Amino acid sequence: MNKTLVSICLFLVFNYATVAAQKIAPPKGRIAVVADGNSPDPDDLGGTAVTLALLRSSGLENKLVHYSHSCDLVRDDRISKQAEKERHHLMQVACNMTARRWGGFEHLTFYDAMWQQEATINDLCWAINASTADDPLWIIEAGEPDIIGMALKKTPKEKHQYIKVVTHHPANDNAGDFYTWQQILDFGIEEVRIPDQNINLKLDHEKWDWAKNHSDPRIRLVWTIGNIAELDNIVNFQKGKWDCSDAGMVLYWITGANVNDGLEAGSLDVVKNFLENYVTNNPEPSRKKKK
After folding, report:
1. How many CB atoms sit inside 10 A of residue 158's CB?
2. 166 DSSP assignment
């Protein structure tokens, strides 16, 4: 086989894999996200922006019935009181501004789990109570499990069989101040575990230059929000990295989860294609200049 033919075959295989990975085949049910971002690790900034952009890009924004952030309910000594306060505001901006600029999330209130704890738990309880065999709730564990545990404790046990908690890292599972991961499992929920999403979605900063320099401001906004995490200066392990690892769990759900063979190893190429395809097919209306 000559080199040209080999190159063509590899190109076709690569593109087939990319297209296949972009399938939109979510399982039945709704989705909820419980993120932190107020803890020392700031990756939830980029993760939030990418999560919302992915849901909008796939036409599944109405399936998102709960989004809360800052679910680390006890401040870690590695982050100062001032920096903690900043993170709460930054996470709220990441939620509200991404939702406004990408559109489609008008039905949703984004809750601060620490500062609005009761309202956050009640909102998640509502989503749990609405769950049935034909309309289960998929909870994305993008932070500590405490809010999830508090909501499960407050809801009827017969509803828990319709709850599926998606996780990708034991650092979240084992970080609770009030609930262990085993206690979450003891509620009778279904654990849906996928590989560590940091492997393919925590990347060298320059890998995201395509978004930094993009012609569409919605994609530049996603980059800007994720870039704050690298400039945050609270933790060293984020230096030089653009991280949206938690969004890999949402990508897994969008592409099928454990029902329709979802994409367990999310990648930048797939994220990029979803976002670029959407903005290409849905250009923002031009604003008329005031006379």
Report:
1. 8
2. E
Query: The tokens 């012609």 sit on which residue?
Result: 215
The neighbour count for residue 145, using CB atoms within 10 Å, is 27
Asked if pLDDT for residue 7 goes beyond 50, the answer is no
> Read out DSSP for 86-125?
HHHHHHHHHHHHHHHHH---TT--EEETTTTHHHHHHHHH
The DSSP bridge pattern shows strands 190-193 and 163-167 to be parallel
Number of neighbouring beta carbons within 10 Å of residue 224: 17
The position carrying tokens 């890998």 is 207
Cα–Cα distance between 105 and 114 in angstroms, integer?
A: 22
Structure-block tokens of residue 50: 């990418």
Q: Residue 289: its pLDDT value, please?
A: 63
Q: Which residue has the tokens 């000594």?
A: 77
Alpha helices (H) in the chain, listed in sequence order:
3-21, 44-57, 81-102, 117-129, 146-153, 170-173, 181-186, 198-201, 209-212, 217-231, 247-254, 268-281
Q: What is the pTM of this model?
A: 0.91
Token duo for residue 95: 């939620």
Domains of the chain: 25-281 (3.90.245)
Residues 198-241 have pLDDT tens digits of 899 999 999 999 999 999 999 999 999 999 987 888 877 778 88
Digit-coded pLDDT (tens) for 164-186: 999 998 888 899 999 999 999 99
Instruction: Give 244's contacts (C-beta < 8 A, 6+ positions apart).
Output: 43, 46, 47, 49, 50, 51, 201, 202, 226, 271
**Secondary structure of residue 271 in the 3-state scheme:** helix
**Gap between the terminal Cα atoms of the chain:** 65
What's the CA gap between 94 and 84, in Å, rounded? 15
Between CA 36 and CA 38 the distance in angstroms is: 6
Max CA separation in the chain (angstroms): 66
In a 10 Å sphere around its CB, with 0-12 CB exposed, 13-18 middle and 19+ buried, how is residue 106 labelled? Answer: exposed
